Amino acid sequence: MSKARDIVETLRTVLVDGDVTNANFTGADLEISKGGTGASSTGAARTALGVAIGTDVLAPDGDGSGLTGVDSLPSQTSQSGKFLTTNGSAASWGTVAPAGLVLLSTVTASSSSTVDMETTFDSTYDEYIVMITKVTGSNLGRNFMLRTKQGGAYNTSANYKTHYVLATNTQTTQSTNNYTNIDSIEAASNIHNTVGRELNIQFNISNPASTNNIKMVRWSGMYYHENSRMGHVNGAGGLDGGITSAITGLRFYMDSGNIATGIFRLYGVSK
Considering the entire predicted model, what is its pTM? Predict the structure, then answer.
């Protein structure tokens, strides 16, 4: 029992006579000599310590802009699903790309006669992907077209060949479209002009910077046909005639009228 009494006496000495007093448990000041600040409120304690919220420590709703040596964070408004990144001098929000893809550029169409994708078609990537969403035409029933840029200009000569297959929910067989010696690639036909019935389509381009192979583009997409049939299209096309010049751009347009709406994103596929 003597050992137990010794322990109790030690605890009593620490709690009552040592660094922590009974007064601590009733909200009174904790003396500086006993490990406190001499203040009974958090505000007074911060003042005694020389600590200011927003300058020395982050406020509960602060962005860090007032802290010494700490950069402020960009606004989170309308940035859902993005990640925080930096260019070495300033923070910003980045878009999360599908695994293995690097977003290179984004173009938003709005009554656009053409949409040109010309950013970074080079040997950095062996494969490039253009993901296109929410495309409508200014006119009902127009065709979605494509040209390649080679030798510093978009090729309009009658050297394109294309083949694509279209299937809709009302067809028992697929329709096949083959074109040769035309001045552009037809990727999808009879596009709708109503929001909610858009064309969504993806184009793949392999080795665009090579000068050793004839350039081909392949695609796959889905959309509402002009008569409101649901359609799915797969195709491939490119320049014939022995043209092997590097591709430095892609131009999208309607065969008549404008691209009323659409978002065009160019990705490089990581090696």
Answer: 0.63
CB atoms within 10 A of CB 27: 9
> For residue 70, is it left (φ>0), alpha (ψ between -120 and 50) or beta?
beta
Q: Which amino acid is at 181?
A: N
> For 162, left (φ over 0), alpha (ψ -120 to 50), or beta?
beta
Task: Name the residue with tokens 């490089």.
Answer: 268
- Structural domain 101-269, CATH architecture: Sandwich (2.60)
Host H or E run for residue 8: helix 2-12
CB 237 within 8 A of CB 267: no
171's torsion region: left (phi>0), alpha (psi -120 to 50) or beta?
Answer: beta
3-state secondary structure of 90: coil
Per the listing, tokens 């096309």 go with: 237
Instruction: Identify whether the C-beta of residue 85 lies closer than 8 Å to the C-beta of residue 92.
Output: yes
The per-residue pLDDT for range 157-171, each reduced to its tens digit, is: 888 999 999 887 776
Collapsing DSSP to helix, strand or coil, 163 comes out as strand
Kindly report which listed range (49-58, 66-75, 151-160, 202-211) carries the lowest average pLDDT score. 49-58
Which residues fall within 8 angstroms of residue 2, CB to CB, at 6 or more apart? none
Domain segments of the chain as ranges: 2-51, 58-75+82-94, 101-269
Cα–Cα distance, 227 to 175 (Å, whole number): 16
Q: Say whether pLDDT at 105 is over 80.
A: yes
Residues 14-42: tens digit of each pLDDT: 554 444 444 444 455 555 544 455 666 66
Beta bridge partners, 142, equal 191
- What is the percentage of the chain residues whose pLDDT exceeds 70? 71
